[in-house]
Amino acid sequence: MKKIIHFFLLMIIIAWVLQGAPQAQESLPQPEQVEQITPSRQGPTDRAELEAFLEGIMASHMESYHIAGATLAVVKDGEIFFAKGYGYADVKEKKPVIADKTLFRPGSISKLFTWTAVMQLVERGKIDLNADINIYLKNFKIPDTYPEPITMTHLLTHTPGFEDVINEMAARRAEDLVSLAEFLERKMPARVLPPGKLTSYSNYGAALAGYIVEKISGVPFEDYVEENIFELLDMQQSTFRQPLPSHLADDMSVGYTYEKGIYKPHGFEYINGLAPAGSMSTTATDIAKFMIAHLQNGKYGENRILEEETAKLMHTRLFTHDPRVDGNAHGFWEMTYNNLRRANSGL
Length: 347
Description:
The chain is α+β, with helices and mostly antiparallel strands. Helix content is 28%, strand content 15%. Strand 2 (69-76) and strand 3 form a beta hairpin.
């Protein structure tokens, strides 16, 4: 079986213990805070120790899964604590992976930037989380299959009730790409469940949210993210654009499949019509800056991508099938490890 080697290892699990966070819905219980038991050994305590610890892990995984190149970043106390590239960005040219230069495709991590853009517009009073999203759509409308309309809350929690199908989602050539608006109208999935009832991963829903950002802001989605997130976080090696801008093209890592002992290169894979759901290209250190901003409730250096209250709201549980299990925040997925609530993306 072919193994996809276009691999991007990110410390994107953003962890926090939410104390005193505002309730997104008054009736929805938030996860209980549990007493933390401090282990006798806290793990690596400095960069050198962490690097030695990770060296063995990375070497083992890269050998086991035939990974050509990977990158990793760890943040701590509002700073990039450690970042490193492993292996090759280009096997034939023996071009090494460099953590602050080599671009990878993080896939659905892209959605967190879309959800952050949404919450920026919520903060500015441009988006109502509980309004029918059809009020933001001009060229096409979501059919009223069920009495309940789909809202931005449903898109944020993957509960709009769409079927999720992979249909012409990827393209090998730039000339095969269709616009976000055209794809969303032409490839609209069926509504198969009432909204707000069941979580079902929806790439279409995330792309639809990005399209709403585009329509409300009046600028292309890629432009909006660059101006309102990337520039504020000094993410100079990041883009949603396809093809890549000329100043970034040479820094993109090569994707491979591994067959019979040989790494076989593949060209740049375009995300067709669903860019807000997965077309981002970035580096480990750029993603780390985004992590820091969320860990600090929207603040990065002297800049903010979200006001503190908005960031706290974004990290607050918005949906769960049962209060006793993990659910969804505003775009984040909850996970609990060792009684510590974490939020992540990239499923």
